[in-house]
Specification:
This is Zn-dependent aminopeptidase. Keywords: Aminopeptidase, Hydrolase, Protease. One of its GO terms (cellular component) is cytoplasm. This protein is of the alpha+beta class and 758 residues long. The protein folds into four domains: 132 residues, no CATH class; 205 residues, Immunoglobulin-like, CATH 2.60.40; 146 residues, 2-Layer Sandwich (Zincin-like); 174 residues, no CATH class. The chain is 25% helix and 26% strand. A seven-stranded mixed beta sheet has the order 4-7-2-1-13-17-15. The chain has a six-stranded mixed beta sheet with strand order 16-19-20-21-23-22, sandwiched between helices. Strands 5-6-3-10 form a four-stranded antiparallel beta sheet, with no helix packed on it. The radius of gyration is 32 Å and the shape is elongated. It starts with 18 loop residues before the first helix and ends with a helix.
């Protein structure tokens, strides 16, 4: 018996391609060209190097809210510690509110066109209203002795000149006095500002409200990119002592520990808070809706007394706070590692009943899921604040949307939208508030990584709180919008001419929601579920998180750590998914069936003749014939497969030892499967075989199977059962944009338009 030459199975490069083209398409070359060179600051393993450093900025602030005039006043002292090896000639300070200055250039970088169907309000806002002036009014910049310092403001950045250069290991203290008009964040979708309510009151969510130090590091030097409004912030860690004076009937909370709680809480509120600290299964309402509604009868004009709330935080990169006389508050304790963390929700009456039912549970689940995937949450609280149309994050506090109808009713869409945004924004405590990546450069490093863990937390939420799934849709699992591979297909299959890679500067990212959030999150989910497996992925992801908590990582630090901690070479994946706009598309090209034969085929005879090999020397080969080939005989298909088994058994008896024969399978059917790759992305080939007896088998070929031929590969399979169906990626794990070519025998496709018409 002889075997037809398996040379046809070899994975050869397409002959029509030139060598240079084949090289350029090599998806498996190492990323030495794309990655920065490791150095003493950042090691080749992805860990901080022996000379890694980062700067520190400590703040002391006195803030006053003028509720009647929606104006904010501040005086701050900044102590900046130079821990770099460099001598600094000047300091850069961020003035993010200047994006809202009357003559800001931010609107001028956006294209616009005349809307022929504009509403009166929209037309007035576009052409008739005077621009809102919300930029900083910098009154003073002084050194520690009260002497004026020279400074220069360039849009949203301020350069402060020091009397002398700042040497390594030295610090510099200076003061800034400032104020600004607070914007209506509902009008213009600001990240910070107030919401005007029908009863004449306002709810404030305040952030980016103070001049903040820019980052100086080994990668960028000064990160002094302008803030145009979309790509977010890059900030050093430090401590905060902040005193905030607001009307006495306001409820306030923010970043850090409230150090004078007994001075600003009523006695009953203190009792409720202490009960909440011991409640692990249900939130305790600290300020009730009835109390909030009663206080809402007051106003900025009628409340003339004030309270000062004192907050302190250490090793945070930023500070945010919220204040209103209309707030309800509840809280519960969450066990994270060996510590208790307070999960807190703050919301106006408009948020109920939805917020009282689900907000704090969402905060609690986020802390549990993210801590499992990264590191134990290191702060003492996490706050979710309800603000209309908002979704924004700061250390220990975030604002979130999701509002019922005025009658209190809400749809599943609103409910899941609220829970998801709370998980996402609370999750930002981990990325980038603790794992402090550069959002100005790489938005995906916080939004994408966070969206991935959000997906994990959402699925956990559905398991922990099944009652949440039993709404109008009565779901079996949480309806996550981003994360599953199939959800990214419409984007990946779109017109790639107008799409940039994930590895784009935040401001320049095309298709922002897909490229900064969904695509990186989906890529990580594919890595976890399909390429690496959960154990390897989770260990590597946690290693990255622990290595870079309270530090400033770069994309290379993430990519290198994921490989370093898993022993999985992923350069092909980073290059394709993060550095290109290619998509996944694999197809079953052909499935051929072979039969064992005792006859030498034409191809082998010609080969023997050309090489002067006597035919009797070919008798030791196992020979197979492809169904439908020149050597195929119709009776082969109809004969009993047992005959092949007997023939093989005789061959094995002649050529192998009893020990070797005992280890061998005894296949009856032989197939060659051709898999084509019209798409550019490399992915594992996941094949599901269905047999004539109804059983199935799943086989995953690693992505490296494409290493020698990026267009087409062939696979051979011997089995004791007849194969009746082959499907690529049956569970939609690889974001394949065209599944109509994934099945053999090819299945008839249904025209959805015709189906709808009929």
């Amino acid at each position: 018996m002889m075997l037809v030459s398996f040379g046809s199975f070899a994975q050869e490069a397409p002959k029509e391609e030139k060598a240079t083209e084949h090289y350029n398409e090599n998806k498996f070359r190492q990323m030495y060209q794309e990655f920065s060179t490791p150095n003493e600051y950042r090691s080749a393993s992805g860990a901080p190097g022996p000379a890694y450093y980062q700067q520190r900025a400590d703040y002391k602030m006195d803030i006053r809210l003028d509720d009647a005039n929606h104006h904010l006043y501040g005086y701050e002292t900044i102590t900046y510690l130079n821990q770099s090896p460099d001598v600094l000639e000047y300091l850069w300070v961020q003035l993010d509110q200047n994006m809202r200055a009357k003559h800001s250039k931010s609107p001028l970088i956006e294209t616009s066109r005349i809307n022929p169907y504009a509403t009166a309000e929209g037309f007035a806002g576009e052409f008739l209203k005077e621009p809102f002036d919300g930029g900083f009014n910098i009154k003073k910049v002084l050194d520690s002795k009260g002497n004026p310092l020279k400074y220069t403001i360039n849009q949203t950045m301020m350069r402060v000149e020091m009397p002398e250069a700042l040497e390594p290991g030295k610090d510099f203290e200076f003061d800034i006095e400032w104020d600004y008009n607070i914007n209506d964040h509902v009008d213009g979708r600001g990240r910070s500002g107030y919401e005007q309510t029908p009863d004449g009151n306002r709810s404030y969510v305040i952030a980016q409200f103070y001049p903040r130090m820019a980052v100086y590091n080994d990668v960028e030097g000064w990160q002094n990119s302008q803030f145009w409004g979309r790509d977010e912030f890059s900030l050093p860690f430090g401590s905060f002592e902040v005193n905030i004076t607001v009307p006495s009937d306001h409820w306030l909370d923010g970043t850090g520990k409230l150090t004078n709680r007994k001075d600003v809480y009523t006695k009953e509120e203190m009792n409720r808070y202490e009960r909440a600290m011991k409640s692990y299964d249900k939130p305790v309402i600290i300020r009730t809706q009835a109390e909030a509604e009663k206080l809402a009868q007051g106003s900025a004009e009628t409340t003339t007394t004030t309270k000062t709330w004192k907050l302190e935080a250490d090793f945070v990169r930023d500070f945010g706070w919220t204040s209103s006389r209309r707030y309800i508050a509840d809280a519960m304790a969450v066990k994270v590692g060996k510590s208790d963390v307070m999960a807190v929700s703050i919301y106006p009456p408009e948020g109920n009943p939805l917020w009282e039912q689900w907000s704090t549970y969402a905060v609690a689940q986020t802390l549990k899921s993210y801590s499992r995937m990264t590191f134990d949450y290191p702060y003492h609280k996490a706050i979710s604040v309800h603000a209309k149309n908002q979704g924004m994050e700061y250390p220990m506090i975030c604002w979130n949307y999701g509002r019922p109808e005025p009658d209190g009713s809400y749809s599943d869409r609103v409910k899941y939208g609220m829970i998801s945004v709370i998980i996402h924004e609370v999750g930002h405590n981990y990325f980038p508030m603790i794992v402090n990546s550069d959002e100005r450069q790489w938005t995906w490093m916080d939004e994408g990584l966070n969206t991935f863990v959000q997906y994990v937390a959402e699925q956990d939420f559905g398991e922990s709180y099944p009652a949440a799934l039993k709404g109008d849709t009565n779901l079996d699992a949480y309806p996550s919008r981003r994360g599953p591979a199939a959800a990214i297909v419409p984007y990946m299959g779109g017109d790639q001419r107008y799409i940039a890679p994930i590895m784009s500067k935040g401001l320049n990212t095309y298709q922002f929601g897909s490229n900064a959030y969904a695509k990186p999150a989906t890529g990580l989910n594919i890595l976890r579920e399909t390429i690496m497996g959960r154990d390897l992925f989770d260990y590597a992801f946690r290693t990255y998180s622990e290595r870079w908590m309270f530090k400033h990582p770069t994309p290379e630090d993430f990519f290198r750590t994921m490989e370093d901690a898993s022993a999985v070479d992923l350069d092909w994946f980073w290059r394709g998914w993060f550095y290109s706009t290619q998509y996944t598309d694999m197809a079953i090209g052909d499935v051929e069936r072979y039969y064992v034969s005792n006859e030498i085929n034409k191809e082998m005879k010609e080969l023997a003749e050309a090489r002067n090999i006597p035919l009797d020397r070919l008798q030791g080969l196992v020979y197979m014939v492809k169904e439908g080939s020149e050597d195929y005989k119709p009776e082969m298909k109809g004969k009993d497969p047992k005959e092949d088994a007997v023939a093989l058994k005789e061959y094995l008896m002649d050529n192998f030892t009893p020990e070797e024969r005992a280890m061998m399978k005894n296949p009856k059917y032989f197939y060659q499967i051709t898999v084509e790759k019209p798409g550019g992305l490399v992915m594992p080939i996941i094949l599901e075989y269905t047999y004539a007896d109804g059983t199935t088998e799943m086989v995953t070929h690693p992505a490296e199977i494409w290493r020698l031929n990026d267009k087409q590969v062939t696979l051979s399979k011997g089995t004791s059962k007849e194969i009746v169906k082959v499907v690529i990626d049956p569970n939609l794990e690889t974001a394949d944009i065209d599944v109509t070519n994934n099945t053999w025998p090819k299945e008839a496709t249904v025209d959805k338009f015709e189906e709808m018409k009929n």
